[in-house]
Predict the structure of Mitochondrial cardiolipin hydrolase.
Amino acid sequence: MRINLRVLSSAAAIAITCAVSAAAYFYKSRITEINEVMVFCKLQYNAYNYFDKLLSFIDAATKSVNVCMPGIHNPAIQGRLVQLIKKKNIKARIIIDRSGYNKSTEFFIKELIDAGAEIKCEKNDAVFTMQHKFCLIDDRILMTGTLNWGNDRSCDHWNYVYITSKLLLVDPVRKEFYRMWEEFSSDLLRKPYSEYTTNDSDAETVEIVNPEENTDESGDFESVVRVPTIDNTELTPNIDALIF
């Protein structure tokens, strides 16, 4: 069986071209991969450069910005989000803690909503706080760390922000955001804070008392919500009694 040398050489050339293209694509993807840490400290150490860099990542959004923060009233960041929504038609979804909506933050929240941002918070839980601090740019870039967007002087404090585009790190956070987005509610943000009272939500106010202290003058403990205390309870099991 004779082998056409021209066909063989063409096949070899195609294989080499594909291998080179694949290697170039892999190299390019590694070069463009984002994986860095920005450390914020006092302003005399030029923290503004890092803050401007953080804003540049937000500005680079082309489709969406998904934010999960205890609060959001940093004027620079809030203003940048408003601009993105209005000028680039970016879809902005924001999850905040219940405490992030108050008299001092109402203006910032209202301006974001008026611009077109969707904002949600945990409706039924007034005890446990939402302490996540992350932002997803186009569901592709993750910014997370200690920097709280609910602080107008956050760039003057000791904080760090880790920025990455590694799918292994981005994907779990992205899934958690959308899970929270489906679970949380926007009802608390549909009216002015001045009209908002704890009775408007389904949250139950819990008073934690020591069972040995009677805070009810009538002596009736039934009217007080009690949280059991651990007294003479063996928290660590007896290993000798365990059967493996």
